[in-house]
Every structure is written in C-alpha cells, then in structure tokens.
Write a structure and sequence with these properties.
about 400 residues, alpha+beta, FAD/NAD(P)-binding domain, D-Amino Acid Oxidase, Chain A, domain 2, 2 domains, 12 helices, 20 strands, globular, membrane, transmembrane, Ubiquinone biosynthesis protein UbiH, UbiH/COQ6, oxidoreductase activity, acting on paired donors, with incorporation or reduction of molecular oxygen
C-alpha cells in the first residue's frame, strides 16, 4: 500500500498485534472502518500442542467485549477456562476473603486465558474481516502530516498511511518514544516468577492468592486441571527461586501457598519478568494514540493489566462512532479517549499500590487490624459486592 495519495489512506492503523492491538483493529473493522495492522513478529498461531506460557485473567467486561467481536467461542476452544471462585488471604494475620460467582449471580468471575490463544483467535477474525495485515514488518520512520501519518520501512520504503495510528506496541513502545510522550515509571525492584504446575488437590475452579511478607503468590486455574502461577518477589529472592531445581521449587511453592492445594507434583520450566508500573503523561500526540501497555503497566497482583488494556480498546473504538468516522485521528476524538481512560487507569494503579503496601507492612498490630478489616469486608455483603463488581468488571 502506498504511503501517499488520499485514496490509499486507512482510517486506522494499529501497530502491534497483541491482544489489545488485535481487539482494536477488529472492533474498528466491524464498524466498517478501513483498518490495517502492523506486527514485527510472525502471525500468531496456536494449537493443542502449544505449551502454556503467558497467561492472563479476563473479567466479565472483557469477555463480553470479545464475545461482541465474535472470538469468545474460538477462545474457549483454545483452552480458556472459566473460574467461579476467588480466595485471597493474608500470610501474617487472620484475614481471608472469598468471592463466589453464585453469590454474585453471574456465570463466572473470570476466565484464565493464554495470550497466544487470544492473539491467534483475534488474528483469524482479522483475516476474515478483511483487515490489511502486515506480519513480520517493522516501521523505521514516520511523517506526521496534518491529515494523516505515513509510516516507512527500511530505505524509506512506504508501508502505510492512516488518519489515526494506534500504538499497541508494548511497554517499551517505540512509537511512544518517537512521539516524545513522557512516561512516569515506578520500579518495584521485584520480578514475577511464572510457571505451570500440577497439584495434588484440584484447583476447584478457583483463583488463589496469598500475601506473605513482600511476596504475593497467585494460582490461576487452567482447563486441564493444572494451575498457572505468578509469584511476585523482590529481585534477589526471585534470583534464588529461579536457581532452584524442580523439586526445590515445588517445595518452596507449597510453603508459600500454605499447602492449600496439597503437594505440587510437577512444574514446567520457570520464567520471570520485571515488575514496573508505567503511565504515559498523555495518551496521544498528533494523530498517534496509545493503548494497553504502551500507555500503562500495572502491578500484576489483581490481574488487571489485560483488562485495563481491553477497556482502552473498547473506549477508543466507541469514540470512533458517528461524526468521528470522518476523521478518527481528530484532536477532539483523542482528547475524549484520553479523558475516558487515563484517570481510570491511574486510579487502578494507585489502588494496586495501596494493596501492596498495606499487605507488605508488618508494624506491630497491623496484621491483626488488617485481618479484622478483611473479615468485616467479607461479612459486609453490600460492600463486598461493590468491590466484586469493580474488580470483575461488572459495574
């Protein structure tokens, strides 16, 4: 596609074919916009033989959005697993709270999904929707013009032009950097250790989470009965954990989850990722808008990262209805999108930091006070329901 000539200009070009970028491109195409998607990696694929790697939890709002895009059935066929319970407890006090789908009158609290499965399901629908797809393609330079953005490959070869370009290219977003949008970072000096484990006891279709010292452990239920774990630890502890052999890792994991699921009988290889919160000062510059990790990253303790990104996708595409169809990259459209999402994402970041600090502090009497507060919330049905509605995307 030529990067010059108005008849070749797309309404929307998404850079990055992760879940957020794919959802934005598909939702915009479903609205009749001319859409392209640029991805530097190969087209995502998934099969029954694909090993479990990166996992996320989707709340009800996110799954409803994906259902409207026509990918829920394909996602559930690719090992997405609905869970009906969530248990959270304090390793240094009596605090414990449990959420149950039946109590809330919903079919599920959320779904455990594999990023690879979601990205592959979206890609299949994007192909069927006629979206212009450029896998294994990387932009090298761009021109910001009054009515469009032109992207070029090596040797300034034209790639594509669009009235609006969406940067969904990850936490280190090259597009965000190129546009000069500053980012506030908070390095937690911690890592999330991830693995897939087999447990003696069934996971009971429940997400389990325990706070202990400055660590947070979460077990997310998978469709095959195993659990995907995220173990947030200070960097030096994470290094020691990653150095353990399988048997040592399983024993350490049993202890930190308080033996809740019995013996851990098998584990996959371990991986880890740094825990850094980021928030862009602006969500747009010129005709480039940020979405998902390019705009914000968050501590994983409540599994909200992908849900916030998909909420960005919903909000942005909703702003492209009506008169905005004539110029999706108009300043008024992007300002409205920023108002819709930036304050909400900032609130969630502050809330996660608050949880982390409250549970990570062990001053005299605080664990008992914290436990009392958690028990009161667990017993106060209206407050507990309100918290659940916010956390699970039901409000």
């Amino acid at each position: 596609m030529s990067a010059s000539g108005s008849r070749d200009v797309l309404d929307l070009l998404v850079v990055g074919a992760g879940a957020v970028g794919g959802a934005i491109a598909l939702a915009a195409a479903r609205q009749g916009l001319r859409v392209g998607l640029l991805e530097r990696a190969a087209a995502p694929t998934f099969s029954d033989a694909t090993p479990v790697t990166r996992v996320a939890t989707l709340n009800i709002a996110s799954m409803e959005f994906l259902a409207r895009l026509g990918v829920q059935d394909a996602l559930e066929a690719r090992r997405a697993h609905a869970f009906s319970g969530m248990a959270v407890w304090d390793g240094h006090g009596p605090g414990h709270i449990r959420f149950d789908a039946d109590e809330l009158g919903v079919p599920a609290l959320g779904w455990t999904v594999e990023h690879a499965a979601l990205e592959a399901a979206l890609w299949t629908e994007l192909e069927a929707a006629g979206v212009a797809l450029w896998p294994e393609t990387e932009w090298k330079s761009l021109d910001i013009r009054p009515d469009r953005v032109d992207l070029y490959g090596p040797q300034h070869v034209p790639l594509a032009s669009a009235r609006l370009v969406v940067a969904a290219d990850g936490a280190q977003s090259p597009l965000r950097t190129r546009m000069g949008i500053p980012v506030r970072e908070q390095d937690y000096h911690a890592r999330g250790v991830v693995a897939t484990v087999t447990t003696e006891r069934p996971h009971e279709d429940t997400a389990w989470q325990r706070f202990v010292d400055d660590q947070i452990i979460a077990f997310l239920p998978l469709a095959d009965g195993r659990s995907s774990i995220v173990w947030s630890q200070p960097e030096h502890q994470a290094a020691d954990t990653l150095a353990l052999d399988d048997a040592g890792f399983c024993r350490a994991l049993e202890a930190v989850i308080d033996h809740r699921l019995g013996t851990i009988t098998a584990t996959s290889k371990r991986a880890s990722f740094p825990l850094v919160a980021r928030h862009a000062r602006d969500y747009h510059a010129g005709r480039v808008a940020l979405a998902g990790d390019a705009a914000h990253t968050i501590h994983p303790l409540a599994g909200q990262g992908l849900n916030l990104g998909l909420a960005d996708a919903r909000a942005l595409v909703e702003r492209l209805h009506g008169p905005a169809r004539r110029d999706p990259g108009a300043e008024t459209v992007l300002r409205a999108y920023t108002r819709d999402r930036r304050s909400e994402n900032a609130f969630m970041q502050r809330a996660m930091d608050g949880f982390r600090l409250v549970f990570g502090t062990h001053a005299a009497g605080l664990p008992e006070l914290r436990g009392l507060g958690i028990r009161l919330v667990d017993q106060a049905t209206p407050l507990k329901r309100r918290l659940a509605l916010r956390a699970f995307g039901l409000d």
